[in-house]
């Protein structure tokens, strides 16, 4: 458990270092947009989580479970943002615990909250790295997320349609990836 805490602290320090660097004002630099940036974004997503350690009928099987996500992001500039991303899987399921051939975990509507840093590689495509906790009535776990998003702007409404892919490592429990589509309002 101590190594896990050290790893999370290291990730947090690296992420905060990137965010500090990302606070530099790049507006007005040749080739950069000088229009005012909308700093806040709130998005609602419909997603499906894919879990390869699922158990159904006493056999290991892929599970596909529906989920919702609500993401808030604060943009430091056109490239860097930091946010709170929450996910709720809206179905009960059973998974085989990572590294165990027999131990199973019953998950009842697990809820995740993660602090996520994002970097836009282009105007539409970005990558993300974050960490947080998955809470559930039986047992809670630490989560690390690696993700990618592709957004299509709706400039008149200051909104964006977003396609998201995330890979979650849920320590000492199971791994999952999710695919989703959402809409975000910038303000």
Q: Quick one: CATH class? A: Mainly Beta
Helix content: 10-25%
What percent strand? over 45%
Global outline: elongated
Secondary-structure class: mainly beta
Characterize the structure shown.
The chain is mainly beta and 187 residues long. The chain has a single domain (2-22, 40-186), classed as Porin, CATH 2.40.160. The protein is 11% helix and 60% strand. It has an eight-stranded antiparallel barrel. A two-stranded antiparallel sheet has the order 4-5. A hairpin with a 4-residue loop joins strand 8 and strand 9 (159-170). The chain is elongated. Residues 18-31 have low confidence and may be disordered.
Write a brief caption for the model.
The chain is mainly β.
Name its key features.
1 helix; 187 residues; Porin; 10 strands; eight-stranded antiparallel β-barrel; mainly beta; two-stranded antiparallel sheet
